[in-house]
Specification:
Blueprint lengths: L13 E4 L9 H18 L5 E8 L2 E7 L32 H11 L3 E6 L5 E8 L15
Parallel strand pairs: 1-2
Antiparallel strand pairs: 2-3, 3-5, 4-5
Amino acid sequence: MSARGAGRGALDRVRVSVGTTVVQADPDLLERILANLVDNALRYGAESEVTIDAAAVDGRILVRVVDHGPGLPGADPERVFDPFQQLGDRDNTSGLGLGLSVVRGFADAMGGSVSAAPTPGGGLTVTVDLAVADGRTDTSPTEVSP
């Protein structure tokens, strides 16, 4: 995974805690999803720590990417998935605004979904909902709390 826009040093701010959670997903698409989400969190999370966690909930796996930056004050979090959206940006020099639209498309292609919500205390939490890998009942996920 790379941090294209934030710089390699920013990866020191990423914490991953997914336990032995196993999802049914295309590994390349899942990697691209997580890379885009982490890149966005590092870019727009105001130097906050970014956490990635996962939990099994009702036969699904929820993977969350959480930052504690400024979030999206006054904006509908779901709009971040619209093509060509860069909510809060004043210029278009940092990209085309397609990263999160691509994330949604890839999640949909794998039979999953993606949503965004404010992080309690400030920031943005993006949740990717995917199927548990076939035959896997031994997941030991990290607890997900709001």
